Structures are given as C-alpha cells and as structure tokens.
C-alpha cells in the first residue's frame, strides 16, 4: 500500500452509516459497527467481532442480548450471511440470552471488504452485525518488469502470485532504493498500466543500479518478491514511431514504400535505434515481420500481391544509450496504416496479350533472368537500398532498351483505350 493510503478498517470507519436495509444486499460492503435495530429497547453483541479466517476454517459465533426490558431472551433470534437467512440447524441456544452459530469449511469471502454476518430479532430487526473475512495470505509477487520512456521515470508491473485471488483486500507496495546506499522509497502512482503496476515519475539517478521489489500485505500475512536490480539506462523504451506513411512505388504492382519519423522523446540522447515492420493483407490476421530494417526510417516492401490492401505497423528499439550494453526494449507497435498496391495491368490468358513482331528474338531468357532477380529480391532484400538501386537501374535499362527497339518498329505496341500506346513488357514474371 502506498504511504498515507488508509486501510480498509480506517476507510470503513469514515464512511457514513448505511441504512439498515442495506445489509440485506449481498453486493454491498460490509459495514463495521452495525447500528442496532428497532427502537433501541434491545441491543446485542456478536462475538468474535470481525474475525479473519483461512479458507476451510470453522467459525463458532455467538449473539448475546443485553437490555433492561424484562423478558428479553434469545428465543426467536436468527442469523443471516450476506442477506440470506442461515438454516436453523446451524444455530442453537446456549442460554436464555445467547444464540450460538457453528459454520464449517468456510469458502472465500464473496467481497474483499468482508461478508455481512448479522443477528436478527424475531421480527426481523437487526440487533448486531460483524464483518467476516475469509481468504488466503498473499503469495510472493514475481515477474517484475520495468521500463523508462525518457530516462527520468520508471514504470514497473508484476504478477501477484500463482493463485492470484486471495479473497481479501491485498495491498501491493513497490519499493526501490539505490543498490549500495540510500534509503527505501515507496512508489506512489499505482494502476498506471494495469491493476498491478506503478509509475515513478522523476528523481531517478543514472549510471547506478537500483534495487526494486514488491511487498504484498493483507489481513492474513505478507510476502515479498525477489529483488530486481537494474540501471535505468538499460531499460529505456519509446513510444511507437509517429507519422507512419505507406505509399505506392510508382506503378510497381508488388511494392509499397514505408516511411516514418524517429520517436521525438529521445532526440536529444546519444543512442542507436533499430526498427521492425510488420504487415498483413486486409482479410488476414497473420502478420509478416521484417527484421532487417536496422536504423533506417524508410523501407520498401517487395513481393506483395497486386491490387491488395495492406496494413503496416512499425516499432522501435533504442539501444546503446550512453554506451549501455543491453539489448533494449521494443516499443509498442504503431497504429496500423493502410495502403493498396496497384492493380495488375497485364491481361490474362484470354485478354489478347500483345506479342513482339514475328522474327524478333524471343524474350524468354530475359523473363527467366527477371524472375530469378525478383525471387532473390523478395527473399533477401526487403529493405536493402543497394538491391533496390540495382533493381531501379535494371528497370531504367529495360525501358531504354524497349524505347530503342520501338524506334525501329512500325508495329508491335498495344493500343490503349485513350489512344496512347503501352510499352511491351514480359507478360508474366
């Protein structure tokens, strides 16, 4: 529990008294010090008051009447638990003023604030109440992980234990201190990235390790995690890269260009960055990841399907900050950005493919070389600038070659609907 945060007993003591009828609801908080019902002629006391028990335990409780009215007895009294009347065979009269209750093999409390055990008069009025806490002691927290977004803060999260549920209100406190000196500090901003997390916003030292641990406490005991030792420089991450843009590469039907901006939070720090891209087609949930982007802020995706919508995301891993040797922590993925590849303009088998004039050399060897080149490109060179320069040079050479051949032709180009003429390229890669 963070320093200064009141426990459940203190919180209950400060709450205004609830109406008597509220105790009948199984979903309401257990109210300490239930007011006695009726006109105050009879009062009673439940013993033990507000007990805390392990799951599977038994409870022996009594409701004893105190009052000045002659003839006040325990005859006709009965018990309810969370608003439900308990079977009469679970209770018996100890004497004329005391009704006893025996409960065995108790289950965990239905609400962490405690279950309502209430003693009623014969007419249904409430005489006394008690909060019953049944649960488990906390387990040792584990799996602590921490990260920093600006080298000034630290956010940590943890797993509460293998069982998880204790059925009791359990306080978790994140503690930290400098490894070789300094006093224990308690994190104060809880639940920042989930139910078991805390954020330390400032005043952290660099170039020195911290010890971090989590303490868990409830009514049945306490537990402490193992100590995590880290240097803030080794756990720096960033927000996802902003301004991710995906666009077509001219008329290339199997490629898309991806560009993004380096995360601004680390622009003033000495570090390296590497990026990953993942993409998928619109009607699929399977992502393909491109790992070899290195520290570029642009990439060309090749080997895509023509006329297809793709969703693309980018993430960043800053590493080597001020000489840190750690691998770095990946950011979250950016928001998906969508773009489509151009539709293929090459006609199908029955579409009247335009062939070169008879007698000209076959383009079969060129097609085979092109297929080999593109096959290698798709497999090895998603984001290699050198490979795409070679590819662009090859395209320029092919266009120049076609232009030279077309100058010696009187026919052999395919008319388009707008009257222009289309370049003859291999019909199938």
From TrEMBL:
One of its GO terms (molecular function) is cytokine receptor activity. The keyword Phosphoprotein applies. CDD domains: FN3. Residues 1-40 form the signal peptide. One of its GO terms (biological process) is negative regulation of neuron apoptotic process. It is found in: Secreted. Pfam families: EpoR_lig-bind, fn3. It comes from the Eukaryota. Residues 335-366, 401-429 are annotated as: Disordered. Keywords: Disulfide bond, Glycoprotein, Immunoglobulin domain, Phosphoprotein, Receptor, Repeat, Secreted, Signal. The keyword Disulfide bond applies. GO terms for cellular component: CRLF-CLCF1 complex; external side of plasma membrane; receptor complex. Residues 140-235, 240-344 form the Fibronectin type-III domain. PROSITE patterns: FN3 (PS50853). Residues 401-411 have a biased composition (Basic residues). Residues 418-429 have a biased composition (Basic and acidic residues). Belongs to the type I cytokine receptor family. Type 3 subfamily. PANTHER family: CYTOKINE RECEPTOR, CYTOKINE RECEPTOR-LIKE FACTOR 1. This is Cytokine receptor-like factor 1.
């Amino acid at each position: 529990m963070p320093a200064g945060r009141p426990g459940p007993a203190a919180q209950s003591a400060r709450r205004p008294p609830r109406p008597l009828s509220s105790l009948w609801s199984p979903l309401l908080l257990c109210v300490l010090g239930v007011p006695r019902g009726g006109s105050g002629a009879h009062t009673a006391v439940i013993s033990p008051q507000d007990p805390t028990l392990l799951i599977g335990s038994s409870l022996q409780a009594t409701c004893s009447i105190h009052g000045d009215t002659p003839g006040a007895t325990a005859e006709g009294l009965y018990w309810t638990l969370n608003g439900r009347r308990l079977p009469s065979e679970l209770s018996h009269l100890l004497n004329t003023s005391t009704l006893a209750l025996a409960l065995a093999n108790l289950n965990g409390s239905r609400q962490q604030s405690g279950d309502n055990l209430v003693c009623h008069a014969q007419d249904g009025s409430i005489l006394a109440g008690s909060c019953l806490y049944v649960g488990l002691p906390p387990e040792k927290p584990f799996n602590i992980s921490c990260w920093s977004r600006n080298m000034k803060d630290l956010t940590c999260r943890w797993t509460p234990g293998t069982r998880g549920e204790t059925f009791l209100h359990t306080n978790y406190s994140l503690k930290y201190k400098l490894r070789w000196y300094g006093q224990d500090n308690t994190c104060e901003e809880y639940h920042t990235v989930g139910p078991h997390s805390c954020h330390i916003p400032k005043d952290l030292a660099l170039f020195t390790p911290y010890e971090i641990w989590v303490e868990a406490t409830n009514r049945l005991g306490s537990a402490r995690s193992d100590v995590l030792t880290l240097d803030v420089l080794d756990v720096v991450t960033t927000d996802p890269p902003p301004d991710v843009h995906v666009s077509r590469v001219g008329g290339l039907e199997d490629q898309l260009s991806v560009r993004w901006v380096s995360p601004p939070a680390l622009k003033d720090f000495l570090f390296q960055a590497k990026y990953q891209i993942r993409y998928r087609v619109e009607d699929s949930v399977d992502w393909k990841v491109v790992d070899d982007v290195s520290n570029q802020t642009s990439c060309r995706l090749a080997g895509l399907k023509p006329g297809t919508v793709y969703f693309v995301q980018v993430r960043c891993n800053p590493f080597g900050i001020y000489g840190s040797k750690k691998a770095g922590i990946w950011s979250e993925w950016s928001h998906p950005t969508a773009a489509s590849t151009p539709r293929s303009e090459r006609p199908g088998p029955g579409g009247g493919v335009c062939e070169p004039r008879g007698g000209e050399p076959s383009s079969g060897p060129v097609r085979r070389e092109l297929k080999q080149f593109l096959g290698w490109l798709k497999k090895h060179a998603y984001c290699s600038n050198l490979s795409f320069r070679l590819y662009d040079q090859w395209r320029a050479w092919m266009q120049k070659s076609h232009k030279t051949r077309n100058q010696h032709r009187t026919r052999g180009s395919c008319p388009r609907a707008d009257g222009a003429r289309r370049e003859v390229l291999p019909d199938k890669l």
